[in-house]
Specification:
The structure holds two protein chains of two kinds.
Chain A: H1 3-14, E1 20-25, H2 31-39, E2 43-47, E3 54-62, E4 65-71, H3 83-93, E5 103-109, H4 113-123, E6 130-135, H5 137-142, E7 145-147, H6 149-156, E8 160-162, H7 171-183, H8 195-210, H9 218-226, H10 239-255, H11 260-275, E9 280-282, H12 291-297, H13 302-343, H14 348-366, H15 369-385, H16 387-400, H17 409-415, H18 419-425, H19 432-441, H20 451-497, E10 506-508, H21 517-551, H22 556-567, H23 576-590, H24 592-604, H25 611-619, H26 626-634, H27 646-654, H28 670-682, H29 687-696, H30 699-726
Parallel strand pairs in A: 1-4, 1-5, 5-6, 6-8
Antiparallel strand pairs in A: 2-3, 3-4, 7-9
Helix pairs in contact in A: 4-11, 8-9, 8-10, 12-13, 13-14, 13-15, 14-21, 15-18, 15-21, 17-18, 18-29, 19-20, 20-27, 20-28, 21-29, 22-23, 24-25, 25-26, 28-30, 29-30
Chain B: E1 3-4, E2 13-19, H1 23-31, E3 39-45, E4 52-56, E5 59-63, H2 65-68, E6 71-73
Antiparallel strand pairs in B: 1-6, 2-3, 2-6, 3-4, 4-5
The chains are: A alpha/beta, B alpha+beta.
Chain lengths: 727, 74
Amino acid sequence: MTMATLDSKKSSLSSNTLPLVALVGNPNTGKSTLFNRLTGLRQHIANYPGVTVEKKSGLLRIGHQDLDLLDLPGCYNLTAVSRDERVVMDVLGGRHGLRRPDLLVFVVDASNLKRNLLLASQCAELGIPAIMALNQCDAAKRNGIHIDTVLLAKQFGIPVVETVATRGRGVDDLKSAIVNALCNPSFLPRIQWPECIAKGCQVLQTGVKDLGGDGVTQAEALRVLFDNDSVFTCGISDKICLKKMVDAAHQDIRGLGLSPGSAEAVLHYRHLESLLDGVVTTSGSVARSHESIDAILLHRVWGTLIFFVVMYVVFQSLYSWAGPLMDLIDTVTGMAQGFLSPLLENMPVLQSLICGGIISGVGGVLIFLPQILILFFFISLLEDTGYMARAAFLVDKLFSWCGLNGRSFVPLLSSYACAIPGVMAARTLSDPKARLTTILMAPFMSCSARLPVYILLIGTFIEPRYGAFAAGWALFAMHFIGLALALPLAWLLNTFFLKIKPQPFILEMPDYRVPTLRNIFHRMWERGREFVLRAGTVILAFSIIIWCLLYFPRNPSVAEKVRADFSAPSASALSNNALEHRIESAYIEQSYLGRFGKAVQPVFEPAGFDWKITVGVLSSFPAREVIIATMGIIYNLGADVDEGSEDLRTILQNEKWTSGPRVGQPVYTLPVVIGIMVFFALCMQCGATVAIIARELDWRWATFSFFGMTTLAWISAVVIYQIGKLF
Amino acid sequence: MSGTLDGLQVGESAEIIDISSDCTRAGRMSTLGFIPGRRVTVTRLAPLGDPISVEIDGQEISLRRAEASLIKVK
């Protein structure tokens, strides 16, 4: 018995936890659908320790027996290059304190048996008991592919269950096969390596031990041997010595007439071809079901046209359909505030905390849900039908030059509605480098929360002076500037700073399939829940902190002073409402954030911002749409103004410097106005985006993104103002 | 006549001889079926001419010209 099997026996016997079953397979095999079928809603999503690879696990209940089911990331081989693949290798090897599965369920696409089984053939080295779920049998049969399941099971020595995960067929059979296999384990046949490779592994295994590394199994030694820049370093620091051993083995492989890069696949395919002899028969010429559809959908003209129509629908639905739902959430939030506010009349601090901090914070989290759900509805639909891969194929060239790829299109497009769903959508990118870059670029796309600022400023300063045509162009330019800067920035980042190696952009064009609503809703539920539970808590915390900074210290003398000023016999009479607005304005000026705004105003001086603009800008860091309400308070109009308010527009137009060198001159000159808009276009004024980036990548990247964008926004505003001053 | 995969016209097919690349990329491509001895047919180009789509061993796979140029064919 090998070490590996001993290990797996030990782990299943020693622990009194539930047996661990892992689903392993290529992407696009229906693995996750099968996982959902097996676990229902008894799922748990977390990250693997130390990496941002999603760990999906769930409880599998078969009769009276409970099992832990793990859905490993989809991968084509064990090449431990990307983080996803490394996680698969770490789990299967039981490294880094991860539990080694007691049983592997290989989910295999019946239409492409040989390629799917390559992963299984590699995993055979690990000596973990296995069974096979032959999925999408119906599609294979329709395409004229017939598989002799009995012979397949005999040849591979493990039970094979036919399944159609989308319809739930074969799921019960699979469950009983899992229970049986845990009692009577069977193993995949291991490949017979040529002498020199087997020897190379042994040399590596003893070599690693001599160098003081962790012990490596043969499966792990093979990874070191075949993956040039494998992240699997077996815990030794002497890379040169390791490389010498690998180079010697590569020399031997070349002696066999194979090249080291493709030798592993070539040998596995040979091994599989002999095992699969007689298993797969194709009747006549295999009907390629997607051929005729592709002729249209990937057509130079029609394909491009259809692509833009599809993307237009996705964007419109995010931008428009989500609107009523978002308004509803706003209304409910307002109603909750209206209901609770009078009840807490006697406790003004608590009243403001609950209504202004907590309820608006919760509302601020829920407000993103409609767009997230709608976007993931479309993403699931496009992925499940097989169109997403085609869409990526069509537009890849637009993005490849700057280190992104065709799959970046949907995340970036959705970010024009809101960066939150956009950043989450970047999960569809399997290349970690392209995913990272896409996430960092997403907040540059001009989201709908920036629109009120543009409308207010363009409507107040550009349209009256330069006409509707100029206003239209200004609005377009503001939407374009983020993209125009983001792509070159992505190029810079990828060319000079990111040390991660890019992966080849090789896409499998899956067969077209009819999606199931069940699957689509499951995905929406999963993403929505995750957003609320994980990012939502952080967003709520931000909201409460900002409330504190705007509320405290609330010295009653501030209000008394305002009242005294306006009750003086000489003062002009003021309505009660206007007085309240003055008091609110005085409080905000005295708040920590207001004081901070005054203190840092010199920083924004080179951009021509006065302290009021500075406080407005600062208060909109948690959420940029807040600027309008803050402006309303600062300019004594109360928080209820919107971007169309004539009062606010008149005040802005007449606002003059009251001190300093420009005293008496208007504050909002054209360079200042453009500077503010560009500042809003480029600045990361969204706590929710920072939180979601931290969630999807980590806090370091979130911090980098925040400071990077803020600096860039500041520089741009300063440059615009300074150049504008010259004219 | 030998060349690289990106030199083929749409509709043309050829036999793969070798992948001239570092182990990682060659490993990934060979896993997806680009192994010496197999026939590969270029089925279409993306509207902007890159990436290209090829058929190999009954499956349709798209890859960029940069990667296709690493695959030697005859």
